Structure formats: C-alpha cells, structure tokens
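Researcher: Go.
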Amino acid sequence: FFDELLAGTHLLHIELEEALAELVAAGHINSDSFAGLRALLVPQSKRPSPSRRRGRRTALLGIADAGRWSLVRRTPPVAVETGSETVEHVARTLLRRYGVICWRLLAREADWLPPWRELLRVCQRLEARGEIRGGRFIAGLSGEQFALPEAIAPLRAVRQRAHAGALVAISGADPLNLVGSIVAGNTVPALTGSRILYRDGLPIATLVSGNFNALEAMDAAAEWKAKSFLLRSGEREPAPAIV
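Model: Structure:
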C-alpha cells in the first residue's frame, strides 16, 4: 500500500509518486485498482496535497487510495524445439504463398519462423524427393532458391510477356511488399497505411506516412496518376487488350 511504501522507503510523497509512475510506465509494477493510474495521470498542479484533502470524495482521487502495488511477474520464455514436421509445414506454406523461396524472403516474415538453415535442409530433402525444384529463379540473388513445379511455367510466361503497363496498388502489409528485400529500393514498412504502386510487376512509387516517393522519373501527368492510385485502396487498373 502507498502508506506502507512511504514509511518503508522514507521518500517524500512526490518522490514516491514519481518512482511509481516510472515503474508503471516500464511495466514493472501494477495496482489492483485503476485509482492509482488515474491519480498518476492527473497533473501535479491539479493534485490535492495530503494536507488539503477534505472528505472521502477528495481522498478517492489521490494515489494513497490506489490499493495494493505489486511487482509484475514475468515468465521467462520457454525454448520450443522446432520439429522437422513443423519446419516442413512452414516451408510448404511459404512455397504456396510465394511460389519461390530463398533466404531474402525471410526478412519480411515473422521472427518466430524457423531460421533459413532449417528451412534449407527441408527444401533440399523435398527437392531430392522430386516435390519441388531447385535453381536460379530470381536474378541477382545469391544463395539457393526453391520453387514449386507449377510456379515455373508462370514465371517464364511473365518474363516473356509484353509489358502492358497495368498498375496495381497494394498495402505495405501485403506479402507482395518485397521492396528492399527481393526488389531493389528502400524498405517500405509493413503497415496497412503504407502503399506501393507496381507497374508490370515492378514498383514505381510508394506512399509512406503520407509522403509520396517516385522510384523512377515521372512527368506531371504520370505522377498525378500514381498518387491517385496510391491514395485509393486495393486499386487495380485493367491491362489494355493486346491485339
């Protein structure tokens, strides 16, 4: 309780309040009621001093009536061994998501995923069984790459297809946000408010924290069109018909 802490620490009233505020902000202690937090949020100039408190109504607003303060017990993280079946499941999930996986892709994934060295062993085993293919599917990246057999033909088709100029705007939280990892450029935060504009599969502009950034030279008309697409949600421009 506050009065017990005051007597045990020999601190001034204001010093103990400041110490409790720092410990609460750091997540080290908590109180069994909201009165303590409300009292800490009240500016010092508006807090009644202990000598001026009159009546129960005023006293309830003070930190002395906050109840019991206690340490927050933190459970140490438990190391979880990743089994081969779990790693294989993660590898297959990534392959279904991207079609092709390599170590650079993990930079955009969650930290709790298995490390690349474990995924690599699983992918090599799947390749030996003939379930996936190994090779160089993404130019300019070092290290081993693996792909689903059904993803290879579409990749070749995209490379051989004529550019149609189709525009697609996606959120920064989309798995297709590969700028700064697979695709060259400054990393775009994986936030829903961030936006990336692609043309024919290549990023040409971004919108981060409301700031527009062109990734290639644009005239005024092209820049206006790019900004318009980025400010909309989930926009996709239909590709013009090729006769």
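Model: The chain has eight helices and nine strands.
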